[in-house]
Amino acid sequence: MSYLEWSEALSLDLPTMDDTHRELVELLGAVEDSPDEHLVTRWRVLIDHTEDHFAREDQWMRDTRFSSVNCHTTQHQVVLQVIREGETAYHSGRPEVIRVMARELAKWFLQHTQSMDAALALHLRRVGYDVITGVVSIPNALPAEEIRGCASATCRT
Ligand SMILES: [Fe+2]
Ligand SMILES: [Fe+2]
What's the rounded Cα separation, in Å, for the pair 99 and 80? Predict the structure, then answer.
């Protein structure tokens, strides 16, 4: 049984975001099933994919009046830093760190998708944001002030 399987519980009804998330689930599965000799290569592919994934969401937030220091973006930065440290640990002779991180990343991803990403997807739909063109079709729905939190129900920022 994989740490994480794609299911409708992860779907946020935003095809570009869902496709990226589905790819991440697959990459995580490839890391989990990896023999030791391919582990760091597959982890690197996952890091590259995650850099693009987070950069895109961060851009969508900037385009729709989130502050550049909102907590969703901050969480992306922290997670990226951690998974890069997994690669460093591997090269210092501790390959098991990547395996532990993969398990933790699966837990984190489920929670992140169902809270911060879900709130972002809702916000983007509300303001009529086109993730391909970057156009906001309902500008009146944009908040008057910058959003410093992540707009999720449990956000305390
Ligand atoms: Fe995401
Ligand atoms: Fe996110």
Answer: 16
